[in-house]
Amino acid sequence: MSTLVGWVGGDAFKTIYFFVQNNPLQFKVCAIFQLSIDFAITAQRVYYGAATPATVLEEEDDLEQALALAEE
């Protein structure tokens, strides 16, 4: 999550800088696009959350069962 916060923070400051310095339109558009992608990734991280160890173990068990069935 700290990486996502860093991305959003950095891109937000970059976007503000481009608007304050009155940079060309393409810089502003690209900065807004990058910031929107950051928000989309952050929203996915918040919505889906991190996998818990129990979930990971269940997925490994399911995979082992599927592989065993495939070998038969």
TrEMBL record:
InterPro entries: SLC66/Scramblase_ANY1. GO terms for biological process: phospholipid translocation; retrograde transport, endosome to Golgi. One of its GO terms (cellular component) is endosome. PANTHER family: PQ-LOOP REPEAT-CONTAINING PROTEIN 1, PQ-LOOP REPEAT-CONTAINING PROTEIN 1-LIKE PROTEIN. This is Uncharacterized protein. It comes from Hermanssonia centrifuga.
